[in-house]
Amino acid sequence: MTTNIRINSDRLWQSLMDLAKIGATEKGGVRRLALTDLDKQARDLVVRWCKEAGCSVGVDKMGNIFARRPGKDDKLAPVMTGSHIDTQPSGGKFDGNYGVMSGLEVIRTLNDFNYETNRPIEVVVWTNEEGSRFAPAMIASGVYAGAFDLDYGLSRQDVDGKTIGEELQRIGYAGDRACGGREVAAFFEAHIEQGPILEAENKTIGVVEGVQGIRWYEVTVTGQDAHAGPTPMPRRKDALVGVGDMVLAVNRIGLANPPYACATVGMLQVTPNSRNVIPGKVFFTVDFRHPDSGVLKRMGDELKAECETICQRRKLELDFKEIWYSPPVKFDTACVNAVQQAAGELGFTNRRIISGAGHDSVYMSRVTPTAMVFVPCKDGISHNEIEDAAQSDLAAGCDVLLRAMIERANA
Ligand code: HGY
Ligand code: MN
Ligand code: MN
User: Fold this and answer.
1) Is any atom of ligand 1 closer than 6 Å to the C-beta of 129?
2) Which residues pair with 269 in a beta bridge?
3) 138 vs 153, 226, 231, CA distance in Å?
4) Do residue 245 and residue 268 come from a single domain?
């Protein structure tokens, strides 16, 4: 029976295009930061679609949304899929949104074929996966998996001092359900690769075996505000010049650990940020990634030491904080094999791959057997408004997801 069940490619594509209208940007991207009014609009739309597909919908204390399709034996723990609909400030139509729309398409397809899985099926929308408005990333799946406690999760603040808890209340998604602590039989997530490998090798499906480790740092360097005119160069305590050395050190450490290490300074704030004042204070963020936890640790330790040396030399003060560590994870063999088998049965070219990006599956793999399905994205570009993917690839990934979920739901 399952051999001829296939998703509806046009319906999946249309749902992605309709969802992408919420927060649409000039260049064809999406700006829908977590817990903004646009996120609320998108949440409301997804909830409506899930209810129209016959699902019961619940929301937990971190605002995670769960849409449930009953199974033959409804007491059994569900097979779950999902991702996120919050985006980067200049994000794309597919990062996260594809995984949620694929979950909805799985439900819609099962309905079309009147196919009842043994276990219930659930689609989840995770709150604040991106870690852009509120750090760290994947905070709500992290609370669900017990990596963070609920108070920590609800108290994360954005640059304006607003907390996740306040914003959930404001948009009406402060659910009453406990966050986590519920048995899940398996978790799958469909996602664009966000890198160049699948496209370069002309592969339709990435069978994701795991995710690399991530460490995030926040660094504040303090010198002394002074006048840009009368202050002689040797007398200056210019925080921005010191940070310039540090940014180059971040890049050098990334390049020094090929081929996997990644090193990024994404945010930088200069104070007082006035053209004729020597900057007395600079804040910046560091994102280090590597599949090996030992190398990742060494990268962070090396950067801290370099920053200390730079501050001594330039008579600056350093505040260097690690704010997040997400260890490398390996996904569950049975789930990875279910994805591999589905891709093979459906005749899609595929290859094993480690995810460079973080995903909610990282935390879900702590509490249930988990795997991911990747599809290519154009030129490997993501976290960019021009992010793009082929409808046929997106449909292929969703068919693999459907088949892997049915296999696990009936196992
Ligand atoms: O940072 C990441 O890898 C993800 O996009 N949150
Ligand atoms: Mn994502
Ligand atoms: Mn992302």
Assistant:
1) yes
2) 283
3) 10, 40, 45
4) yes
